[in-house]
Structure prediction request, 408 residues.
Amino acid sequence: MTLAPERPQTGSLVQQFEYGLDAPICLTWELTYACNLECAHCLSSSGRRDPRELSTEQCKAVIDELQRMQVFYVNIGGGEPTIRPDFWELLEYAVHHQVGVKFSTNGVRITPERAAFLASPACNGYVDVQISLDGATAEVNDYVRGPGSYDTALRALQNLQDAGFADAKISVVCTRENIGQLDEFKALADRFGATLRLTRLRPSGRGADVWDELHPLPEQQRELYDWLMAHTADGEQVLTGDSFFHLAAFGESLPGLNLCGAGRVVCLIDPIGDVYACPFAIHDNFLAGNLLDGGFQKVWQTSPLFQELRAPQTGGACAKCQFYDSCRGGCMAAKFFTGLPLDGPDPECVQGYGEHALAGDRTIPAASQDHSKTNPTRNQPVMLQLLTRPPVSDCAESPLAGFVPDQT
Ligand code: SF4
Ligand code: SF4
Prediction:
């Protein structure tokens, strides 16, 4: 059995995190690739269920193991996790085993009854709900998430508020289309007694197909940085999931670890039990192993890929940059999926080196997997247009095709 590199006992917390921890502090678990929507930028190209999805009993065994490893919470996503018929059973199982759950949903099954359950003592503060919304208006949101998805998300937020659920999250992927709406997003969050959470668009999954069209322009990155500095400074709560640390090269660092945690403190379990270095790195190059082969702990602690990611990094071309200590060269997944070297600048490097690198020779890696319902859109950035024309049949592009609403 290979052992992880020895973690230093001194130095800052961040320096220690770089060597990896005995258990991840940010574990994402995608329960299913099935989804009622088919968002243009979905990081996991979700849509269709993988028939090899872990069974209820296998999922419970994973939760048991997370409890033993003292993983205090898990981010559940997908796909649309609430589509799994056993989702609520698994949620309760996790809560009863002291594994807190933060789950991301498009809101489709957050009915008044489910909202009341989430607000009830049964969940005991162990459950956090993140409603995905990528536009502060229906026009902007539905452009990427599909017709009707804005209304669905707002209905879910209303149901949670009416049920007395405290502090839901509104989770926004920042794009070229919505950077101008940051104040409106904040106002929406305030209206629903929720907290705003902003995350970065990565060119992963179907996001690779629309990244050129949707990733924020350089001047919008500056606008975002200034807005975040103003709203994360004096205690006003806007969460970022630590995803904008490449913006630190504008000046001061934003709150957070400011570190690529892939394989060190971050990882992903996918619906069939494959473990990847990061939720935004679903590709064979970042596949560490499968938890059905000896358990999650074995993969986390002994996979050669994770050992490699935990080894000291040189910084490569970025080491010469005066902002390297805060920016760290940016996001590994963003570099990989735009065909840039992993030891060079981030494609959105705020010093402009990313644009220079993007203009050079590069090969964009082919996706290892695709769960889209409408495969012809893969690698053809036309999906946004496809969403605007009527569905060709009931089962083709309707966001709710084949979906039976939850009656409970
Ligand atoms: S690869 Fe990117 S998204 Fe993943 S942990 Fe590193 S910085 Fe974060
Ligand atoms: S050159 Fe590298 S370290 Fe410097 S700002 Fe750009 S991505 Fe960050």
